[in-house]
Design a protein that fits this description.
α15 packs across α17. A hairpin with a 2-residue loop joins β3 and β4. It is built from 30 helices and 5 strands. The strands form 2 sheets. A 3-stranded antiparallel beta sheet has the order 3-4-5. It has a two-stranded antiparallel sheet with strand order 1-2.
Length: about 775
């Protein structure tokens, strides 16, 4: 900052610019409200079909989002300009006061024109006239004035420079459109950039020489700023892609981290903090970050050329960092394309480039069965936390028909990961016992996100603002349904039962996906073959609903029924969906009675498919071991435990999964938002009854013969029937005349059991 620049600064143009930006922010606020309350709201309510259901709706959503970002950017720019103007005016005032005080001491401050200035005396004492008194001063006064002016100019320069830097970074965040970076003032933006430079300086050190105290300091900084866009981009680009990978590999090196508990805990938190920070950085569309992302993908196949962590390839390190954070969809898809291409080339038995005897790296601190050597695991975890990216990665091929019924209609990534890839356990060796394969569990997480629109481990924990509150809305789209159709085709196919048996880690995820699409499965089962489907009772809850085909739905359900966990989750989802039907269509009219009856019929049929499939599978698994068969029946009969604590709102029921190894929540559609309170009340009542019964005879459900198991199934249907008709007894006689109880039993026992003999999939046999 030059002396005369600040001394004679005219802020009129800056004042005008600030006024313009403030007015622009106000105008954009009004446009923002209009875009959401009018444009987007109408689009959400519109019953579109075809391309409009996907392309147009998505375009309108993105347009409304751009108004959000435009408003945010205008506010931020206005604040930074206003703060900077206030500071510069204050520094100008301080400078003029200092110069004026100097004049009173016979000292002059002059700009030398080359960025420097000088402090000189006004009049030499020898030239003063008789009787004239010259103010006294000393060299100390000269030095003091010089230092004061220099301090003022330095602060003004810092204010001006940091404002310019932050404004450039904010604008560069979006190559097209607007940045969503939101800062209350210039200082907060400048503080983030300064913190990033300090953190980058620590990350440029030799990780072996970084003390645990310094690592904790780095963690504290990242923990505070990891979701700050300017901080994240500045750190990522300052350290560089290879710098970030080599530094983390050095921190995670087992010889450095794992034998010091304090160091190991610091390294564990650093993995999470750095992963979230880099994810935030990828959300920027700046040229710098585009180059960073391209370089990171190219580094994936290359060994880093370091002594740490068995000299890992880029994919092996970055995948462990991206387990945490919100990453850009395009980056994740480009990264995944590169990873799978390399993985396919090396998919040879006994020759894994990741899990082998010479790779002794431990790059993951989260999970006992997951050392982090297989980069596919961390990448799939990233997809599990980024639903839109996962939906894109597993998107149905464009030339697919209405229903997936051949291999060419399956996404090549999905085909490879579910059927072709050789998966290996990556936990510590534990004798001859079969080990859980963490990568397949992560594949299930990614598919949950791709099909439901929710992060697989979304929670409703108080104070957790990192994920949207579950129960807010049904997030299914035509694109998510396209992924679900492929999954139903694969796992409902001829070798689907073998796949589920060989991939037990996916059972919980498949159950959660089946629950999330139970309305579409019911619709598919409701027809006579693929004709006369009941769209009145089972209407589409979103545009572009999943189409499974009658046989495809039955096959998929029969495979899910074979596993105790997937059976329980789908049964719970089916029951909640049925109850929502009954609450939304209470027996107050002929039309409501018809829909309620059809909903109960469908639960009986689907429950029959699931239960019969389980009984057959238990008999196949345990052969003549009656005790084990009965114990399995007893465990499956407790499917109601999955519904305990379920909450309804926004068109979905969110089913928490307490007391199990299953993470997060399961989603089940409900018929009407207005049914939420009634469903919640009913679930609570039924849960209390079940708990009272268990306390009275805690061993009652421990074992069930097949006959008892089916008897209990019929009893569950009967309880639902009573619940529906007790409040309106005038329709009970009508239901009796229509033989609804008999039809429910027939659909459960005959349609579910007998018909499933030739329509469902046979049990898996070793």
């Amino acid at each position: 900052m030059h002396l005369d620049t600040l001394r004679f600064a005219n802020f009129a143009q800056l004042d005008a610019a600030i006024t313009d930006w403030e007015q622009m922010a106000g105008q954009l606020a009004r446009l923002h409200d209009t875009a959401h309350q009018d444009l987007k709201a109408k689009a959400d309510r519109a019953n579109w079909a075809g391309a409009n259901a996907t392309v147009s709706r998505e375009f309108i959503d993105k347009t409304a989002g751009e108004f959000d970002d435009a408003h945010t950017e205008a506010k931020t720019i206005s604040r930074i300009l206003s703060d900077t103007r206030g500071e510069l005016k204050e520094y100008q005032h301080q400078l003029l006061e200092a110069i004026e005080r100097g004049l009173k001491s016979n000292l002059t401050v002059m700009d030398l024109g080359d960025g420097s200035f000088t402090v000189t005396m006004n009049i030499h004492p020898d030239r003063t006239g008789r009787g004239t008194t010259v103010p006294e001063h000393s060299q100390h006064d000269v030095d003091a004035l010089r230092d004061e002016v220099q301090r003022i100019l330095g602060k003004a320069a810092e204010s001006d420079t940091t404002a310019a830097e932050t404004l450039r970074l904010i604008v560069d965040q979006a190559k097209y459109g607007f940045s969503g970076a939101d800062y209350a003032d210039r200082d907060s933006a400048a503080k983030a950039v300064k913190a990033a430079k300090g953190a980058a300086a620590l990350m440029k050190k030799d990780p072996h020489k970084l003390t645990t105290t310094e690592l904790n300091e780095l963690n504290a900084t990242l923990g505070q700023f990891r979701q700050d866009p300017l901080f994240a981009e500045e750190l990522a680009t300052s350290v560089g892609p290879k710098g970030a990978l080599t530094f983390y590999a050095g921190i995670a090196d087992p010889y450095l981290a794992h034998y010091d508990p304090k160091r190991a805990e610091a390294a564990k938190q650093f993995q999470k903090n750095l992963g979230i920070t880099l994810g935030t950085a990828t959300l920027s569309d700046s040229t710098r970050m585009d180059a960073w992302e391209d370089a990171m993908v190219k580094l994936g196949t290359q060994p880093l050329g370091i002594d740490d962590a068995s000299n890992p390839r880029g994919f092996a390190v970055m995948s462990n960092l991206m387990r945490f954070g919100d990453y850009d969809d395009q980056f994740l898809n480009a990264y995944g394309d590169g990873l799978l291409a390399f993985d396919k080339e090396n998919n040879v038995k006994g020759r894994s480039p990741w899990i082998n005897n010479w790779n002794q790296a431990d790059l993951n601190f989260w999970g006992e069965e997951d050392r982090g050597r297989d980069p596919m695991t961390g990448f799939l975890e990233a997809l599990g936390h980024n639903p839109d990216a996962s939906t894109q990665f597993f998107a149905q091929p464009e030339d697919s028909g209405d229903t997936v019924n051949k291999d060419s209609e399956v996404n090549e990534h999905l085909q490879y990961l579910t059927k072709d890839r050789i998966w290996l356990p990556d936990g510590p060796a534990m004798g001859d016992a079969p080990q859980e394969i963490a990568g397949r569990d992560s594949l299930g997480h990614a598919l949950e996100a791709a099909t439901t629109g929710y992060a697989y481990d979304a929670t409703a924990a108080p104070g957790d603002h990192t994920t949207a509150p579950p129960g807010s809305l049904d997030r299914r789209t035509a694109a998510t349904a396209g992924v679900m159709e492929q999954i139903a085709y694969l796992y409902g196919g001829e070798d689907g039962h073998q796949m589920l048996h060989d991939q037990p880690e996916l059972a919980d995820s498949l159950g959660k996906m089946g629950s999330a699409y139970i309305d579409d499965l019911d619709y598919a089962v409701s027809g006579i073959g693929d004709h006369a489907k009941d769209a009145t009772t089972f209407p589409a809850r979103y545009a572009g609903r999943a189409e499974f085909g009658n046989q495809g739905a039955i096959h998929f359900l029969s495979v899910l029924g074979q596993n105790e966990t997937s059976h329980g989750l789908v049964t719970a989802g089916q029951h909640l969906y049925t109850i929502s039907h009954l609450e939304a269509h209470q027996t107050t009219s002929e039309a409501n009675y018809h829909q309620g009856r059809q909903a109960m019929y469908m639960e009986a049929e689907v429950r029959g498919i699931l239960d019969h499939s389980h009984v057959q599978q238990a008999a196949s698994d345990y052969k003549d071991d009656t005790e084990q068969i009965n114990k399995s029946n007893g465990r499956v009969a407790e499917w109601g435990k999955f519904a305990i604590g379920a909450a309804v709102g926004g068109g979905v029921a969110m089913i928490p999964l307490p007391g199990t190894t299953v993470a997060g929540i399961a989603v089940a559609p409900v018929v009407s938002d207005l049914a939420g309170e009634a469903i919640n009340t009913y679930i609570g009542q039924e849960t209390d009854k079940a708990m009272d019964k268990d306390e009275a005879d805690p061993t009652e459900k421990s074992q069930l013969t097949s006959d008892d198991f089916y008897t209990k199934g019929v009893g569950d249907l009967g309880a639902t029937y009573d619940h529906y008709l007790d409040r309106h007894p005038e329709y009970r006689a009508r239901a009796a005349a229509d033989d609804v109880p008999g039809e429910l039993k027939t659909r459960y026992m005959d349609t579910g059991s007998s018909e499933d003999d030739y329509r469902g999939r046979a049990p898996h046999k070793d």
